[in-house]
Amino acid sequence: MRPEQQGVEVAVLVSVGRHPITGRARRADQDARGLELALGLERQLPGSRVSLLHAGPRGEESEAALRGYLGMGLESLTLLEQAEGSDAIPALAEHLAAAPPQLVITGARAERGEGSGLLPYALAERLGWPLVNGLAAVEKVENGVATLLQALPRGQRRRLKVRLPAIVSVDGAAPVARQSAFGPARRAELEATSVPAEPDRELAEWRLAPARKRPKRLKIVKAASARDRFKAAAAKAEGGSGQVLEGVSAEQGAEAILKLLKEEGVLR
Amino acid sequence: MLETLLPILIFAALGLAVIGAWRRVRLWRQGRPSAVPLLKGLAAMPRRYLVDLHHVVGRDKVMSNTHVATAGGFVAAAVLMILVHGLGLAQGVLGWLLLAASATMFVGSLFVARRRRNPPARLSKGPWMRLPKSLMAFSLSVFAITLPAVGLLPADFGHWLLALLLAAVVVWGLGEMVFGMTWGGPMKHAFAGALHLAFHRRAERFGEGNRSTGLKALDLDDEAAPLGVEKPADFTWNQLLGFDACVQCGRCEAVCPAFAAGQPLNPKKLIQDMVVGLAGGSDANYAGSPYPGKPVGEHHGTPHGPIVAREGKALVDAETLWSCTTCRACVEECPMMIEHVDAIVDMRRHLTLERGQTPNKGAEVLDNLIATDNPGGFDPGARLHWAADLNLPLMADVKQAEVLLWLGDGAFDMRNQRTLRALVKVLRAAEVEFAVLGNEERDSGDVARRLGDEATFQSLAKRNIATLAQYRFQRIVTCDPHSFHVLGNEYGELGGQYEVRHHSTFIAELFEAGRLAFAPWKGGNVTYHDPCYLGRYNGEYEAPRNVLKALGIEVKEMERSGFRSRCCGGGGGAPITDIPGERRIPDMRMNDVKETGAELVAVGCPQCTAMLEGVVDATAEVRDIAELVADALVARPAAGATHRPQAEEVI
Ligand code: SF4
Ligand code: SF4
């Protein structure tokens, strides 16, 4: 007997992105990949429904960026309208809890604002749902359990089974987003509802400065031949002095991490 | 017996033809509205036919004379036949005139038959092969039935069997020439062609030296207007009429670079597919060369069905539309004045704007244009890095200048930066007062528009127009024919009117005015490649050749040069959509260069430079005209005795 494959309700959380060179608003790359994954799922599992959700202020620039997602072939987007600088997490959590979808897909990290990548975790915590990051593909959904393929570094993949509802986040390993078309983007609807804004107090206190490039550890390669150089270049970056702590208490673990950060000059 | 039969036959054929015409007109009217002055068009039609159309047909002298004899003979014979045999006005000179007309037509049809003996591959076969016989049937039978009418033969000449036979031939002739004209036979081209000339969507292209090459803008403010063409009925009615006028002569096919490269495009087949679409049916009856690699008979369409299927096959495959380089060679050659490029871009607009299906690198290029205002995704603030040491005057500082130097996206390309530097050197040598927009300049929108993204084109164009409106200048000079075309011919509709010059034109003027002097040419043989967007789009064939002449270079022309120049393969976003073929277009062009024995090919376009320089094992070097001029610069006559242009002596 074929196990039952039924359609799923998927909500894709999308944000207003920022082009890395010009800083113009656009559909964010990871979120768009998340939507692409969802649209692929819709094809794969007939009867699935994909909805788009965004929390934030409504403005000309952000609307154009959000329509970039709609141009991928959706008819509407739910906009939880908030004042600039509000915390999106409570609004999103409340909306999702009110009518829970089975799967929530989001990009791993926003392109503007904090960009801390914490949103999926914070949402998962609030909703009490499992979270899988670095999603590469959804293989199947059967009887409320999804089989997922998670991307690991260097092209490795790990197959996971997750009970739904769940939150998954995608990064560059997910399929590239399809082209956004002008016509559908223009016709689609933004269904805005205002939600009570909780000002993000913490963020208001932060001092924001342009990011600096992180220093990179140089690999010192002592190679005599081209073959050695190639091997060294292709080898995994190994710290060498790494250690595996097992069976230690949380404090001991934290100590070790702190010590390493001090050694590396990350903390002073 | 014939006297009673003939009027019946003639008026029956005419009646059926009128019904056929009405049905055909209804097919065209499925298209969207397009405002053209009907009466004025009809009045202008004879002139458009005799002058403009025959200007194109006249490139093939034999065919032109054949057509004059056959068509002229037919029109005269048909009118006279109605008078003589239909209304019985055989007395006097009319009958003799009818004899002369049908004889002329017969001579013409002999030439048609001769061409059909070993027809070149570009000609369609099928029903077209019987056309010479039908022409003969018509002309001979009309001649024969007129002999008794003028008294050359007794009225009761011959046996009734002969009369019956003659009547049968008359029926055949009338069937093909009158009935077939409106019911879809080969003679349809005369009926549709005449109306197409009268109601052409680009009336401004007719008349000596006139051209109309800019794409027409989509109305993006009207949300109900379709974005491009999805189904045949989305074309305007006069575009549909235009497709129906095609004579399947295949001149377009013979010059199409994509067809020659084995890419899945044949402009003739494309137009025929549109005819299939407007009437509904399959392409199985098409009797010409297919799209390379695509067998005939697998595609079908309806007036209200999609042209490109979302899945599977419909009328045309998307890759056919994306193979076109928009070189306009087909439009230039088409004796029926059909606008292939308009149609192709209309269909591309739908694919890009409604379906988001721009193939290969298309989506990425369009995203870059939206986010960074240039197709390569470069930092827009880096547009002037190549000129860091040149101290170019910026419009933002000087506010006005005689010449605004438009750089184009070649500013980001290391090869084209050499051309730009050469051009700056030339302008400085001639003491031209010029300035650049610098980082305020954006892509002109050429590629976006030809990839069908009208929205991005209009966004770029409007912002460029707003920037240009802040400054005062007399003319724009650019070394990029694509920018030249878009700024000069396509911004007007959006509110930007400029006088634009290609750098070759401007350099030729500077030389004429004695502001430049050159050392004599010492290099080898040189040929010149006409860029499509300079030549066919803007009619500038002379200036680049004049500049080369001024340099002391005698151009060894390629077989295909001037208005017949073969595209380099770089236009219309073709390198971006990159549809595979059997050969590469630039390789074929470099082969043309090789055949002249030239060691250097002079070009005037960054795209051509890139495409032709990308050819491996090329036999010739590729240099822009600006580079050749910059290398040859010497101090002006005041300092020495270099040859003086004659223009100065006259003044
Ligand atoms: S489109 Fe024009 S050039 Fe091409 S076959 Fe038809 S009539 Fe001839
Ligand atoms: S514009 Fe050029 S490439 Fe396109 S169909 Fe015409 S001849 Fe072929």
Any idea what the shape of chain B is? Answer: elongated
Number of strands of chain A: 12
Structure annotation, total helices of chain B: 27
H-E order of chain A: EEEHEHEHEHEEEEEHEHHH
Largest interface: chains, residues each: A-B, 17 and 22 residues
Mean pLDDT across all residues of chain B, rounded? 92
Number of helices of chain A: 8
Strand order of the largest sheet of chain A: 7-11-6-1-4-5-12
CA radius of gyration of chain A: 21 Å
The largest beta-sheet of chain B arranges its strands as 4-3-5-6
**What general form of chain A does the structure show?**
globular
Classified in CATH, the superfamily of the largest domain in chain A is HUPs
Bound compounds = iron/sulfur cluster
Helix content of chain B: 40-55%
Report the structural category of chain A.
Answer: alpha/beta
Mean pLDDT of chain A: 88
Describe this structure in words.
The complex is a heterodimer of chains A (268) and B (651). Chain A has 268 residues and is α/β, with parallel strands linked by helices. Chain A folds into two domains: 196 residues, Rossmann fold, CATH 3.40.50.620; 57 residues, no CATH class. Chain A contains eight helices and twelve strands. In chain A, helix 3 packs across helix 4. The longest helix of chain A has 16 residues. Chain B is mostly helical and 651 residues long. Chain B folds into four domains: 197 residues; 111 residues, no CATH class; 143 residues, Rossmann fold; 118 residues, Rossmann fold. In chain B, the strands form three sheets. In chain B, strands 4-3-5-6 form a four-stranded parallel sheet. A three-stranded parallel sheet of chain B has the order 7-8-9. Chain B has a two-stranded antiparallel ribbon with strand order 1-2. In chain B, strand 5, helix 20 and strand 6 form a beta-alpha-beta unit. In chain B, helix 2 crosses helix 7 and helix 6 packs parallel to helix 7. The C terminus of chain B is likely disordered. At the A-B interface, helix 5 of A face helix 14 and helix 15 of B. Bound molecules: iron/sulfur cluster (SF4) (2 copies). The site of one iron/sulfur cluster has 15 residues of chain B, from helix 10, helix 13 and helix 14.
